[in-house]
Amino acid sequence: YDLGEAAETMTAKALSGRPPSLWRYHEVLPVRDEAAVVTLGEGMTPFLPLRRLGAELGVPRLMMKDEGLLPTGTFKARGAAVGVSRALELGVRELAMPTNGNAGAAWALYAARAGIRSHIVMPLDAPAITRAECAAAGAHLSLVRGHIGDAGRIVAAAVGSDLYDASTLKEPYRIEGKKTMGYELAEQLGWKLPDVVVYPTGGGVGLIGLHKAFEELARLEMVEGALPRLVSVQSTGCAPIVRAFEAGDHESQAWENPRTVAFGINVPKALGDFLVLDALYASSGTAVAVDDAELLRDQQICARLEGLFVCPEGAACVSAVRRLRASGWLAGDEQVVLLNTGSGLKYPETALPGEVPTLAPGDRLSRD
Fold this sequence. Notes:
Elements lengths: L2 H7 L2 H4 L31 E3 L1 H7 L4 E5 L9 H14 L4 E5 L3 H13 L2 E7 L4 H9 L3 E5 L3 H11 L5 E2 L8 H5 L1 H9 L7 E5 L4 H15 L9 E7 L4 H8 L25 H10 L3 E5 L1 H15 L5 H16 L8 E5 L28
Parallel strand pairs: 2-10, 3-4, 3-6, 4-5, 7-8, 7-10, 8-9
Antiparallel strand pairs: 1-2
């Protein structure tokens, strides 16, 4: 991008009069022909103070950007919107991609809107609702007995000149959609940046995109001061980035037998792991792994204290803040932003209640 030219038209004043979608930042997006834009209304998700949850965690300036209200129910809609739009602009008629579920669902639906045929390969135990979304969109859906890496190998063997590879970081455009989270965050804070941003990390494209956005905003002179410290959150059942960060490495090693209820971060080795690690080192950030019991408990605490039914990956960020405050990495006075990457409705089985009383007509309600 020509950021000098972009700075002339993408001013705070100009943006205030644009529609509230991620396409408001078109100067720093790769789609040039407005007719190629494929949209379902994505962008400008809620940015909410978490006063009660922040008080419990000892971080009173805690906030959340809630991506669960995007089309398809997750932040994957951002990457799909820009990635599919650019694919359409390039003349793509058929695409394929591996997925843990949500990305495939988003790309299948956006591809359907664009009139592009899609082939989606996901693990057999991916969330059922993501299968339903792909099927409803008319995608050619295949299930693999394995993890996303196995799905990736199947797609890699199939793509060619007539089948576009939409795998994570095999095409450069979805990261441009993901980075709009950073632009929105800055705009919603009055063109200021928080001290810390906490992000659940599987493939890591969202974290890479946030880092890119913050650097671009600084070069555009739309923000001042230090850029946010970035925190990568993973599960103890699949934590290749955390292990590499703790060792001071710039590349991760594949995690054996990955498993977590936070299925979106169940990625044994991210293709862009070196970019994620570089972003953590450059921002003086850190990486934290939390276990499933912690994140499931914090998923319920977040709902009870704030009325937010976040996805397990978003709940993992709450658990990470709890750990970072206890360890002293967070002093407690920082402005900390959690990224909730999807709606808890995409994972209904993670929050099922225990025994629930059944009443007959005329029974009295117990308040115990």
